[in-house]
Amino acid sequence: MTKHELLVPAGDMESLHQAIFNGADAVYLGCKMFGARKFAKNFDNEEIVEAIKLAHLYGVKIYVTMNTLVKDDEVDAFLSQVEYLHKNGVDAIIIQDFGMLCLVREKYPNLEVHASTQANTSSKETAELFYKLGVKRVVFSREMTLDEINSIDTPIEKEVFIHGALCICYSGCCLMSSMLGTRSGNRGECAGSCRLKYSLEKDGSIISKNKYLLSTKELNSAPKMQELLNSDIASFKIEGRMKSPEYVGFITRYYRNLIDGKPINLEEETDNLKTIFNREFTKGNLFSATKPELMNPNTPNHIGLEIGKVIEVTPSKIKIKLSKPLNQHDAIRFLNSGKGFIVNFLYDKKDNLINSATDICYVDNKVDLKENDIVCKTQDIKLLTDLKKLPERKVNIKITVNAYIGKPLHIIMSDYLNEVEIFGQEVQSSINAPITNERLKDQLEKLGETPFISTNTSINMDNNIFISIKEINELRRSLVEKLIQTRTTPKDIVTKNVTFKPISNILTNYRTASITTEEQLLTCLELNINRIYTEDESLYEKYKSNSSIYYKIPRCTRNPKQHQKERNLISDYFIPNNSNTYISDYPFNIYNSYTLYYLEKNNILTNTISVELTEYEISKLIESYESKFKQKPNIEVLVYGRVENMLIKGNILSLNNESYNLIDFKNRVFPVYFDGVNTHILNYENLQLIDSNILNSIPNIRFNFFNESPAEVIRVVNNYNKIFF
User: Fold this and answer.
1) Burial of 202 from C-beta contacts in 10 A (0-12 / 13-18 / 19+)
2) pLDDT digits (tens, 9 = 90+) for 633-653
3) Is the domain of 364 the same as that of 431?
4) pTM of the model
């Protein structure tokens, strides 16, 4: 049977303690840089070392998130941080950036690397590529079902999110935040665009007004735990590095008990969970949730637990009919009004102050509530107080004693992985006050506040021997210190020099275009566009005799190899193992020259760099590539067109084949459509680099045409031709 690791988040040291002592097998946390939760407290280098030592003392692993995209001028700092972590005993690094992943695997061959969920592993082919590159574990896309994950037969370890917040965009690979400003979700700076209000427009008419149309509920797999336990998933992952220490403690204990099969009242514990944090719960894509089960268009915030109804409102008091208990210092929220406060004063029918209530009660009207409403508890003071008391956690050890007259006292202490020993004084015979087996055992097992408890103490001894209690205590303390040191001392690391060889043919002054209609395709052919990308398979088959036509393989398909053609534009990692031609699309989000190099090394002919890069950053990437690899990069740069901000599994907006738009609070209009499998949200405006100073320095330019007419296509291409040529 598969041993299922419980992997828990920690945004600070207090959360780390909650995770460890409530039963986590492993904890993931972030440094001050290069983690996908930049606004968590995170850990400085000294705290990281402290965290690793504490965790290892209790047999808990530490994984550090280095899962942002990395710019060329950050690579040295990135590698320096990785080496620091490696030297101090980190158990694994979690990486998104393909170039950094490959570079770290080559430079530090005995450092365990996990592919982040933002590497978007959605297929067996992607998992196989990462395994080929030496990655130990992949975090599968949160859009995959359990059946899909189970069907992937691969030696690579599987990690799956089972609880917490869900990104609505595939694997969190979202461009919305960066396209609307300067905060990249792929750089740990997500502005939470999916948690804002939008209106849905169809043919000029609003069909849904000011709703949280992209806001998901919280994933909760507890009711499906047995199905998870029957899988070959190696690690069950909890989301929540931005959550409170109390949340971390509760959710760790919650799933620890479920995994271990301990009897719990699931309904009662779910109620407790609702007071800690919830946006309502969903079984998620993991268990094929439908749109109503997945989305919460009413609020993006913590809802709490429904505990009653307001039955009367006066200017001074709110009368509540309770269905569940309310205590002084609990926090409540009125569901419809959105108002709330901490209950500092709680009254009975006679206006007496009380500590708790279970039926009719009164609270001060501190929020100027006007109407009757639903009452939700958003903080349970008794539960929070209980959670602050860390439970005891002990490491099972074995103690073996050899005590024979005329030989030094010999004691061995083992945690079943490590073994330490110590020798004492020569054992003497005793006639008047011999030590007994039981007394020796009792003294050795007095481990007190140490992390250890002996579950197997074996005494091998002669009869009628003398050993002083003082000596036994001193030897026990020394052994404990030695075992602690052994458990917390990092192993030696291996570092290799990495060399690079030029590997690609350079294509220059190429113009490429992604099209959506046959008219656009024919217009691009007339304009002698060098490569034309279409996701319409029928169009590709109709025109594939023309070598400039490429098929755009659908993003996040479960079977990318089955979709491949003679010439392909790809957005997911997999191993091209034939003579076909492959171009990478901008969802690869290429930020640095190393990613370019390693993709070329894996048979990708040309790569489209990230649309998140500024003109200056594009120039620096080109400059860095030329410096490192002594040749020009074979890249495409998107200079015109609609960027796809989000790709979302399923028809979450209930769209048909007609024209729709999402409209945000600034009245920006985002085209949105459903292709039969996924929902696509495009940016509100076209990317334009017509005035850029870099056009003459980039080898190949790319256009994305969405709803442009043939005349508009001609105008755009000719405008760029004047500069590019």
Assistant:
1) middle
2) 899 999 999 999 999 999 999
3) no
4) 0.94
